[in-house]
Design goal:
Layout lengths: L11 E5 L6 E5 L8 H4 L5 H11 L6 H18 L4 H4 E3 L2 H5 L10 E3 L6 H9 L2 E3 L4 E3 L1 H16 L8 H22 L3 E2 L8 H13 L3 H13 L3 H5 L6 E4 L2 E4 L16 E3 L10 H11 L21 H16 L3 H7 L10 H13 L7 H7 L6 H6 L4 H11 L15 E2 L6 H18 L5 H13 L1 H10 L14 H10 E2 L14 H29 L1
Parallel strand pairs: 6-7
Antiparallel strand pairs: 1-2, 3-4, 5-6, 8-9, 9-10, 11-12
Helix pairs in contact: 3-7, 9-10, 10-12, 10-15, 12-20, 16-18, 19-20, 19-22
Length: 541
C-alpha cells in the first residue's frame, strides 16, 4: 500500500489470556525514531518563560510554606549543626529565579530524601508562644509546618522517605491530645477569630457610615452577605455580579480550594430597604458612585488597581477596620459585650458569624447544602456531586443574610427599583451622573442591571443619606451627585417603588410556609379589626 499522510492504525498482535483458545488483540508498541532536527529542538526564550509561568500556578500558600521550611532550616542549623551540611543545601540563583519552584525569598532547602522525621517532630514540640509562661501554639499553627514539608517536597528533585508519613501520623495525633490538655489549663495561645454576631455586624456598619469609611462599610456588607473570606471580596470585578429580577448575583472567578474556578457557585444577594446601614445595594451603590472616577482605568477590579498586588484591598480593609475600632471610644467594651475576646477581633469573624447567624438565628434555617456552597466549604466528594445545584435554597439564604427574618413581616420585601428603564430620560441621566465612567468602561460586562438597582436604592434612602450629610458637611455622601440635583432627584423618586413593576416582577427566595404565615397574619389582623368594630358598636349603640 502506498504511503500517505493519514494517521496509521497501530498494528495488532494476538495475545492468549489463559490456557485454552481465548485471545485478545493488543496494539504493538511502536518504535519511534526521532529526527535529528527534533532531538536538537529547543523552545525560544519567550515561549519557555510563558510555559514556566503557566506551570507556576500551583497553590496560593507556597510563600507561607517556604517561610515555614526556612524556619525549620534555621532550627537545624542552630540545634543540630552536625547534620546541617548533609540535610540542607543552598539554592543557586538559577533555582531561586525559576517561578515553577516557588522559592520566593527562600535561600536554602532540604535534601528531602535524607530528611529526618525526628527533626520536624522536635521542632514542633519545641515551639512556644511564651516559653516563660509555658504557653504553646495551637495545633493548627504547628500542623502547617508538616503541610509545608509535604508541599515543598513535591517541588524537590528528591522525595521524602516512605517512613515519613508513617511516623508523622501518630505523632500528630498525640500532639493534638497534648495541646487539648494544655488548652484546658489555659496554656495554649489561641489566635482564631471569634464569630461576629448579627448585632455586632450591624453596629460595625453604623460606625463605618458614621465615620465616613465607605470602603470599610461596603467591604463589611459584602463579606457578610457573601459569607466570604476577605480575599474573595478583594478579587471581585465588574464581570462578577449582575442583576436577576429582585436580586444581584455574585460569582467568584476562583476560590481558595478551587483554583481552576470549576466549582464556584452563584450567590443571590438581596437589598434590605428596612435597614439602610446593612443594605448591600445601598452600600455598593454609594461606593461605586462616590469613587467612580478611579474606575477610569484598564483594570476591571472593583477594589484594587492592576498595579496593586492580590489581597492588597483585603489587607487595607483589615487595617482600616482595626483602626476604626481603636479610634472609637468604648468600642473595646462593646466588643466584649458581644463575646469577642481581647485579641480575637478579626475580619474572618465576619465569615464565621454570618454562617452561624443564618443557621441558628431562626427555627427555619436555610438548607445546609446551600450554606456550605455559599461559604465555599467542602461537603465531601459524594455530596458535592449530588447536591451541586441548590440555587433555590441560596435565594432563601440570601434573604436571611440581608437581615430579613423569615418569622417577621416583610421578609419577601422587594428592593427599591425603577418602574421604567434607561429609555426614561431621567433614569438615563441619573445613571450617567452616578455611574457614567463605569458604564462607559464596563457596562458591556453585564453589571448595568445591578447599577440600576443600586441607583434606585440611593434614591429611596435619600433622606437617610442626607441625615449623615447634615451631621458632617464633609461626609462622603455629599459627593453623591444626584443628592445635589434636587430636580432630578424628585423626578427619580416618582419612578422608584417597592411594588412589582419594571424588571422586578416577583419576590424570589420566599418559601411557601413564609407566604402562608403572612396570610395568617393578615387574617388575624382582620379578626382584630372586626373585634374592635364590634366593641365600638356595643359601646355606642
Amino acid at each position: 500500500t502506498p504511503a500517505s499522510d493519514a494517521p496509521s492504525t497501530p498494528a495488532l498482535s494476538m495475545t492468549r489470556n489463559s490456557p485454552g483458545t481465548q485471545y485478545h488483540a493488543t496494539p504493538k508498541k511502536k518504535t519511534s525514531v526521532a529526527k535529528d532536527s527534533c532531538s536538537r529542538f529547543q523552545l525560544k526564550e519567550r515561549h519557555e518563560k510563558a510555559v514556566e509561568k503557566t506551570k507556576s500556578h500551583t497553590v496560593e500558600c507556597m510563600p507561607d510554606y517556604r517561610r515555614r521550611v526556612m524556619k525549620v532550616v534555621g532550627y537545624v542549623e542552630k540545634e543540630y549543626p552536625e547534620i546541617y551540611d548533609e540535610a540542607v543545601y543552598k539554592l543557586s540563583s538559577e533555582q531561586k529565579s525559576n517561578p515553577r519552584y516557588h522559592y520566593h525569598r527562600a535561600t536554602h532547602d532540604f535534601h528531602y530524601d535524607q530528611f529526618p522525621t525526628e527533626i520536624l517532630q522536635s521542632f514542633m514540640s519545641d515551639q512556644w508562644r511564651d516559653k516563660e509562661k509555658g504557653i504553646k501554639y495551637t495545633y493548627d499553627h504547628l500542623r502547617k509546618y508538616h503541610d509545608a514539608i509535604l508541599k515543598c517536597a513535591e517541588f524537590s528533585p528528591s522525595d521524602l522517605p516512605p517512613s515519613y508519613r508513617n511516623e508523622m501520623t501518630p505523632y500528630l495525633d498525640n500532639l493534638k491530645k497534648e495541646l487539648v490538655k494544655a488548652k484546658s489549663n489555659g496554656k495554649v495561645s489561641e489566635q482564631d477569630a471569634d464569630p461576629i454576631c448579627f448585632g455586632l455586624y450591624e453596629q460595625l456598619c453604623k460606625w463605618a457610615v458614621m465615620r465616613g469609611l465607605i470602603f470599610v462599610w461596603v467591604f463589611l456588607v459584602l463579606q457578610w452577605s457573601l459569607m466570604a473570606r476577605a480575599c474573595n471580596v478583594d478579587s471581585i470585578s465588574f464581570q462578577n455580579f449582575w442583576a436577576d429580577g429582585d436580586c444581584v448575583k455574585f460569582k467568584y472567578d476562583l476560590n481558595k480550594r478551587d483554583r481552576k474556578g470549576e466549582k464556584t457557585t452563584e450567590k443571590h444577594c438581596y437589598a434590605n430597604p428596612l435597614k439602610p446601614a446593612i443594605c448591600l445595594f445601598l452600600a455598593f451603590g454609594c461606593y461605586l458612585c462616590i469613587f467612580q472616577q478611579k474606575f477610569d482605568r484598564d483594570c476591571n477590579k472593583v477594589f484594587r488597581a492592576m498595579s496593586e498586588k492580590e489581597k492588597s484591598a483585603s489587607s487595607s480593609y483589615s487595617k482600616a477596620l482595626k483602626k476604626m475600632i481603636d479610634g472609637i471610644k468604648g468600642a473595646a467594651q462593646k466588643l466584649r459585650e458581644y463575646s469577642i475576646r481581647d485579641g480575637h477581633f478579626n475580619p474572618h469573624g465576619m465569615r464565621k458569624g454570618s454562617g452561624i447567624s443564618v443557621t441558628t438565628g431562626s427555627m427555619e434555617p436555610p438548607p445546609i447544602p446551600s450554606v456550605l456552597l455559599r461559604g465555599e466549604w467542602s461537603m465531601g466528594k459524594v455530596l458535592e456531586v449530588y447536591w451541586r445545584f441548590s440555587a433555590i435554597g441560596d435565594t432563601y439564604l440570601g434573604r436571611c443574610l440581608a437581615g430579613l427574618r423569615p418569622d417577621e413581616p416583610n421578609f419577601g420585601v422587594l428592593p427599591p427599583h425603577f418602574t421604567v428603564g434607561r429609555e426614561n430620560p431621567f433614569v438615563d441621566k441619573g445613571m450617567k451622573l452616578c455611574f457614567g465612567v463605569i458604564l462607559e468602561r464596563y457596562g458591556a460586562s453585564g453589571c448595568e442591571g445591578a447599577l440600576l438597582l443600586f441607583l434606585a436604592s440611593i434614591v429611596h434612602h435619600r433622606a437617610w443619606l442626607r441625615t449623615h450629610i447634615g451631621k458632617s458637611a464633609n461626609h462622603p455622601f455629599s459627593q453623591i451627585p444626584i443628592l445635589n440635583n434636587e430636580k432630578l432627584l424628585g423626578e427619580l423618586a416618582k419612578l422608584v417603588t417597592l411594588e412589582k413593576g419594571g424588571a422586578v416582577t416577583s419576590a424570589t427566595g420566599v418559601p411557601p410556609n413564609v407566604k402562608i404565615r403572612e396570610e395568617v397574619r393578615e387574617a388575624i389582623g382582620l379578626l382584630h379589626q372586626y373585634r374592635r368594630d364590634v366593641q365600638w358598636l356595643q359601646e355606642n349603640l
